[in-house]
Specification:
The protein has two domains: 338 residues, Bira Bifunctional Protein, Domain 2 (BirA Bifunctional Protein, domain 2, 2-Layer Sandwich); 87 residues, Anticodon-binding domain (Rossmann fold). The protein is elongated, with a radius of gyration of 28 Å. It is α+β, with helices and mostly antiparallel strands. The longest helix is centred in the first third of the chain and has 20 residues.
Length: 453
């Protein structure tokens, strides 16, 4: 017996029903992107590894899917690397390309490559899949879609305010109650300074980015492994567990980071974003969270994450300010800020909370029963008129038993069934049955258009 086919772990098939739901998510996010003046681009699924490596930190590099060179990929691999199983150095010999890990680094590459054609500031959005060699679990997949919006070529913090407003609008349309968590990487740099470990900022951010997953004690253990002293870890603990209102947290930070110029700058920027966002009367909660780190190395200023309040799930959106991401591609000094919506996690949240609107599941509006060749050919002409009026319709392809054709209509939740037999052909009418009420009447084509619209 042939083995049943399967798909790789961390990937999913999507049925027509699921695709209708996903398209609702994409269309909703896209409509808000357009409302805020963003333009769409696309980049290739694979990039040169030289573009991707070193942009996401050591952890990110491990999660990159590498693509073996075509043909004899081992021809350039030194024998000593193969013998010693030195995969780290072997990768560059056998693989020149990789699947994109996110949309931000490919976007930075795009900006540099096409810089002479872009008007700054450049506002782009991008809705495409990304791949990460992560351990699959609920809400975490190896292939998933990101819906990104970025502004490059502007240092203004009003861009961050607009992004917070945009996040609020997207989730208001979805009906998902959220908390928008804000922090600033300069604050984290200031914390690293005052605890006497400025050279450990990357280790600190990578570790505390896992605080929700592994807990504070395990974060402290990881920091100890990275070489932080027990004194520094003790000084860090209360900073990561600040409580109170946003104003109280900022006041405490001002007191603790008063000796750090970069830390005070971060507090100033965070206050600006927070005050201007709250002045917009957002529906969402906005919370200062000093433990928010977002472990990606390219963030330099504002960082944010979005949590769903009514369901257990990881962050469903996030992003931040990066002051010189394009610098690694030879274009220094170009600041940017962006956010990414996790479409797959939003899909799971909407499913869990059953928040899809009733009309989300787009289906055929009316199906024509097939009574035979002559009737079917006439129905095709009627369907042309209905479709020209934006009414989705289909003809059952075979003249099967009525029970089978009606079962098909029910299986697709088609709300109307049209029947054209000999009497309807003679009178030039259509008999239409409302599947919800059971009512059935004869209509002219013009009356049918008015009914079905």
């Amino acid at each position: 017996m042939a083995q049943k086919p399967s798909i790789p772990k961390g990937t999913r098939d999507f049925s027509p029903l699921e695709m209708a739901k996903r398209n609702y998510i994409f269309d909703t996010i896209k409509s808000v992107f357009l409302l805020y003046g963003f333009q769409q681009i696309e980049t290739p699924a694979m990039e040169n590894l030289s573009t991707l490596m070193g942009k996401y930190g050591e952890e990110g590099d491990k999660l990159l899917f590498k693509i073996l060179n075509s043909g004899d990929f081992l021809k350039s691999a030194p024998d000593d690397l193969l013998a010693n199983k030195d995969y780290i150095h072997l990768i560059t010999k056998v693989s020149e390309k990789g699947l994109r890990y996110d949309l931000t680094v490919p976007f930075a590459r795009y900006v540099v490559q096409h810089r002479n054609d872009l008007q700054m500031p450049f506002k782009r959005y991008q809705i495409q899949p990304v791949w990460r060699a992560d351990r699959p679990q609920r809400g975490r997949y190896r292939e998933f879609y990101q819906c990104d919006a970025d502004v490059v070529g502007s240092d203004s913090l009003f861009n961050e305010v607009e992004l917070v407003s945009m996040i609020d609008e997207v989730f208001k349309r979805f009906g998902i109650n959220i908390a928008i968590k804000l922090n600033n990487r300069k604050i984290l740099s200031g914390i690293a300074e005052v605890i006497g470990a400025p050279d450990k900022i990357v280790d600190i951010t990578v570790a505390i980015d896992k605080i929700d997953k592994i807990g504070l004690d395990n974060v402290n253990a990881e920091l100890q492994e990275k070489g932080l002293s027990a004194e520094a870890i003790d000084m860090l603990r209360p900073l990561l567990t600040l409580s109170g209102t946003n104003a109280e947290k900022l006041s405490t930070l001002e007191s603790l980071l008063s000796s750090s110029q970069v830390g005070m700058k971060g507090i100033e920027e965070l206050k600006f974003v927070l005050d201007n966002a709250l002045a917009l009367n957002l529906k969402s909660e906005v919370e200062v969270d000093v433990s928010l780190a977002r472990g990606l190395n390219y963030y330099t200023g504002t960082i944010l994450e979005v949590k769903a309040l009514d369901v257990e799930m990881g962050s469903i959106s996030g992003g931040g300010r990066y002051d010189n991401l394009t610098g690694v591609f030879g274009m220094d000094g170009l600041s940017g800020v962006g956010i990414s919506f996790g479409a797959d996690r939003i899909f799971d949240v909407l499913n869990t909370l059953d928040l899809y609107p009733a009309d989300t599941i787009a289906t055929t509006k009316v199906i024509f029963i097939n009574f035979g060749m002559k009737e079917a050919q006439y129905c095709l002409q009627l369907m042309t008129q209905l479709r020209s009026n934006g009414i989705s319709c289909e003809l059952y392809p075979e003249s099967s038993k009525m029970k089978k054709q009606m079962a098909y209509a029910n299986s697709k939740d088609i709300p109307f069934v049209a029947m054209v037999g000999e009497s309807e052909l003679a009178s030039g009418t259509i008999s239409i049955k409302d599947m919800a009420s059971g009512e059935q009447k004869n209509y002219t084509i013009d009356e049918a258009v008015s009914l079905l619209k």
